[in-house]
């Protein structure tokens, strides 16, 4: 298990970001999705918890086989997805990632938002007071992002909001900028497989850090798009974008219903106050199962006729020619 705490500041208030984070997640998911890969929204509905109150529950499937490093692709199925489940009780959220193909793998993220510059060292005392962890500050203006994700229009050093007048952030901006808020994220990565644990957990934390940096840069750079939205308007944007994203990656589910009215009372549906659990299974999902009534495929003919040795004829087998050379396996 590898535990880290990330702190990401933005020139916004916690109240403003309530709309911004919903807008950013939907638009970012849509942009990062393409046919066969991306984020499929399975469920998005109101949720009520006896401890945290009213919130929103979402379940997604993140298809990302081509984005894995070669050593990881070698040990996972071709059709590979991670299940994301999130409980949003803003300004507190719980997000977990699991994979039925890798039952010993999980990511657990608890997030809290406060109007400060990342100065609260006791924010996770109830969740991880006695747990050793590294605290990592992420600067949306000055930290480098992978070159393939860089856009000048989303660079806080160049972007300036027309509606708020904020932007063009410079080094040290967190010390003097107002308003300012911080997204505190407690991230636990587990991959309990001997020989791979350290390598995988470190790799996943690097990916998580890059995603947090890119996502928070976008949330601020898109502020003029969402700043005047109401909650009803951002929920409608969320619904329409999620349906478009599902179509984009080749999934055609029934229309996704998003409302602010709880579907079931908290006594029937409740999430744990921390570290929700997801039932894991080593069985392949139903769509990968081989139908029982499928006819068995023959790999060779039942009889083989050899050429007459008296005739000087060339033995021609399909797919093999005299010019063919042995193929060496392609190394990645």
From TrEMBL:
Residues annotated as signal peptide: none
List the catalysed reactions. a 1,2-diacyl-sn-glycero-3-phospho-(1D-myo-inositol)(in) = a 1,2-diacyl-sn-glycero-3-phospho-(1D-myo-inositol)(out); a 1,2-diacyl-sn-glycero-3-phosphate(in) = a 1,2-diacyl-sn-glycero-3-phosphate(out)
Task: Say if the entry is tagged with keyword Ubl conjugation.
Answer: no
A GO-annotated cellular component: cytoplasm
This protein's UniProt keywords: Lipid transport, Lipid-binding, Transport
> Where do the Phosphatidylinositol transfer protein N-terminal domain residues begin and end?
1-243
Q: Where is the composition biased (Low complexity)?
A: 268-285
This one is known as Cytoplasmic phosphatidylinositol transfer protein 1
Question: What does UniProt list as this organism's lineage?
Answer: Eukaryota, Metazoa, Chordata, Craniata, Vertebrata
The record's listing under PANTHER family reads: CYTOPLASMIC PHOSPHATIDYLINOSITOL TRANSFER PROTEIN 1, PHOSPHATIDYLINOSITOL TRANSFER PROTEIN
**A GO molecular function for this record?**
phosphatidic acid binding
UniProt feature, compositional bias: Basic and acidic residues: 322-332
Q: Which GO terms describe its biological process?
A: signal transduction
Purpose of the protein: Catalyzes the transfer of phosphatidylinositol (PI) and phosphatidic acid (PA) between membranes. Binds PA derived from the phospholipase D signaling pathway and among the cellular PA species, preferably binds to the C16:0/16:1 and C16:1/18:1 PA species.
Q: Which family does it belong to?
A: Belongs to the PtdIns transfer protein family. PI transfer class IIB subfamily.
